[in-house]
Amino acid sequence: MSKANQIQAPKGVSEYVPPQSRKFESVRQALLEPAKNAGYELIELPVFEDTDLFTRGVGESTDVVSKEMYTFEDRGGRSITLRPEGTAGVMRAVIEHGLDRGQLPVKLYYSGAFFRAERPQAGRYRQFYQVGIEAIGIQDAALDAEVIAIADAGFRSIGLKKYRLEITSLGDAISRAKHRIDLVKFIEKLNLDDATRTRAAINPLRLFDDKREEIKKQMADAPLLLDFLSEQSLKDFEDVQRHLSEMKVDFIINPRMVRGLDYYTGTTFEFVHELLGAQSGIGGGGRYDGLMAELGGQELSGIGFGLGIDRCVLAADAEGISFDQEFTSDLFIIPLGDESKSTALKTAQELRNAGFRVEISFGDRALKGSMKAADKSGAAYVLVLGESEISSGTVELKQMSTGETSSVTLTSLQNHLRNVSGK
Question: Quick check: is 51 in a domain?
């Protein structure tokens, strides 16, 4: 088939095939493990929702809603959107299934694909993957610090070192109301196009997130929300910093951070990797005090994060971190003949059930070709299984790294592998 006739993946979609998928899976598991260790439980969500969930939950003034959502009409005439982020869907599920009526905080983790209609580039995809957590129902600076520390632990477990944590506070309603008065007065004097002025009228904080240089220059002297924090918001922010310091989680304060979603309040944070260029954010999140009520639920606060698996893979590559050694086989079996295949399948199944990773050479390849396949698989040991080995019940087990062989009975193979592998 010619290249012209081949169907290819849509532009801007991140997909992973071996060996890169090994890194992807290692990164995903590393990011999830700290959340599991902290008592978070899995939630699986639909990849599409009613569009209203995101326009109400994420915010009409955000680029996500106004420019980047994949929205379509289904066969029933309903407006449906592929999920651009995870928090709104989690909150919808918590309300719908009454999870907020039980033990608080509700602690959930998720992972999966998300979708935004953006201009594709390295680290910025139309389909991308995230790991996220949400802790809903308790407002406590210590919980804020724990959530941030869980993200930091995930990055460290990957082996990442060249990243920094930036934090700020977007305050409470009192703080934002006071700040908005001065910020609106400041913005009224700026030279803005109609679209930008309209967006600022909905949420003036959005201009701090504008990436255009001309807007950045005009906003350089804008009043900062950190200077308008109420007494309680300031205390909460100071407590978060104290808790992070006690846990030895390094951070810097970024007073101009607002992030890209309207629901954030209070503690807000972002992790930035220094080797990723323009798409340097590898994860972030914050507290959202009014989101549940906005979506028809109780007046409960929450805090969470989303961590970019794709960008963490890129960051690991940039730092030269390798995961390949985690995906080697314990044993590679080479059967010679039809009778040997049955014995090989039975032996492999018994070993796999005992927790070993075992591969078999298929397709009646010659011994030389099968040995090459065993070498490429990264198997620790290989054994050849022919008629003589089956009749005697004894095989020669070859250690691939040294070439040394040892005679082992088939009945003692599992114990022998357990002794040499430490499993």
Answer: yes
